[in-house]
């Protein structure tokens, strides 16, 4: 089975928005209010979900760029 993931869409809403950046930030500091999609959250694909990914999501929003991965 092939699963398509929208990188940055950590709350699986179908779009990348500020809620995703906040979700990753809260996850990183241990205050997540929902279960994030860790595959979608690892935007830089380094195997870790951290503040770098939150910054990348903000940049995706500002630049209006999104990428799908399998």
Verbal overview:
With 70 residues, this protein is mainly alpha-helical. The chain is 40% helix and 6% strand. The protein is built from three helices and two strands, in the order E-H-H-H-E. The chain has helices at 18-28, 38-41, 51-63; strands spanning 5-6, 68-69. It has a two-stranded antiparallel sheet. Helix 1 runs antiparallel to helix 3. The chain is globular and about 30 Å long. The protein starts with a strand and ends with a strand. The mean pLDDT is 91.
Strand content: 5-15%
Mean pLDDT: 91
Helix-and-strand structural type: mainly alpha
| Overall 3D shape | globular
Strand order of the largest sheet: 1-2
Can you count the beta strands? Answer: 2
Q: Which ranges are low-confidence, i.e. pLDDT below 50, for 5 or more consecutive residues? A: none
Report the helical percentage.
Answer: 40-55%
Question: Biggest β-sheet: count, sense, barrel?
Answer: 2 strands, antiparallel
- Please provide the ordered H/E string of secondary-structure elements: EHHHE
Terminal CA distance reads 10 Å
Identify the quaternary structure here: single chain
Question: Secondary-structure blueprint of this entry?
Answer:
Layout: E1 5-6, H1 18-28, H2 38-41, H3 51-63, E2 68-69
Antiparallel strand pairs: 1-2
Summarize this structure as a short list of keywords or feature phrases:
two-stranded antiparallel sheet
Question: Quick summary of this structure?
Answer:
This protein has 70 residues and is mainly α. 40% of the residues lie in helices and 6% in strands.
